Amino acid sequence: MANVGFRIVNHFERVNQEIIDGFKGIATPNIGDVMGRMFAMDYSIKTVNKPGIHVVGSAFTVRTHPSDNLMVHKAMDMAKPGDIIVIDACGDMGNAILGELMCHYAKTKGIAGYIVDGPVRDLHAIAEMEFPVFAKGGSPRGPYKEGPGEINTLISCGNVPVRPGDVIVADDDGVVVIPREDAENVLKKAKAIQEKEQEIISAIYDGRWDRKWVDETLRQKGCDGLD
Ligand SMILES: O=C([O-])CC(=O)C(=O)O
Ligand SMILES: [Mg+2]
Q: Where, if anywhere, are coiled coils annotated (predicted)?
């Protein structure tokens, strides 16, 4: 483990599959809200897929030198079915970190998707094949294959820390990261929020949505012009 910046960690704990599967169908805003609104990635990391995408998996992390994908190729060979490869490319927009070939290969391995703090390429082909990819944008510039980088160490992606084994949920709104030891608790709370929001929607259409809090809050904050 001495070669800081160029090393691979082979073993880490994944969250129980039942808990990971529990997040299927729960929208990212509901999950983000129950973590203090602190664990959602930056808006710039968004889907390059067609609308309606929703993916859940276990983080398999890569930190790569900007514009280089050597360690991402190694990660594809190592990741397990259901893993989402989360790539910290230092937020650099120089060169695409992956493209359609790497998506086809990942798909055959049962890898659930890619999240990239950087650009990708072959956008049309990726959208057509419906393999989940979230990135900062597109670029035709291809990646180098020189290294260095790290696999399965702490990374930062979209301004959120991500550790291998954290739970990732991504949809049209973006990406949330659930710290692995908190996954069960966050799942319970996110389900409760989802139910509560359904209740609110019913209340809106029944004319029962309580709006008193808006004026109360404005009054408390000293706003002029209220009745
Ligand atoms: O050349 C690369 O490594 C990335 C790429 O375009 C692909 O995977 O299709
Ligand atoms: Mg390509």
A: none
Query: Could you tell me which residues come within 8 angstroms of residue 184 by beta carbon, excluding any fewer than 6 positions away?
Result: 19
Indicate whether 19 belongs to any domain: yes
Query: Which ligand 1 atom minimizes the distance to the CA of 103?
Result: 8
> Is the separation of the CB atoms in 89 and 66 below 8 Å?
yes
> Is residue 61 included in any domain, yes or no?
yes
Q: Per-residue confidence of the chain (227 residues) as pLDDT tens digits?
A: 579 999 999 999 999 999 999 999 999 999 999 999 999 999 999 999 999 999 999 999 999 999 999 999 999 999 999 999 999 999 999 999 999 999 999 999 999 999 999 999 999 999 999 899 999 999 999 999 999 999 999 999 999 999 999 999 999 999 999 999 999 999 999 999 999 999 999 999 999 999 999 999 999 999 999 98
Q: Which residues line ligand 1 (CB under 6 A)?
A: 69, 98-102, 121-122, 142-143
29 lies in a domain? yes
ipTM of the complex: 0.97
CA 58 to CA 106: how far, in whole Å? 14
Range of the domain at 27: 6-194
Q: Which atom of ligand 1 is found nearest the CA of 105? A: 8
Q: What total number of domains does the chain contain?
A: 1
CATH number of residue 91's parent domain: 3.50.30.40
pTM, two decimals, is 0.96
Q: Is residue 202 part of a domain?
A: no
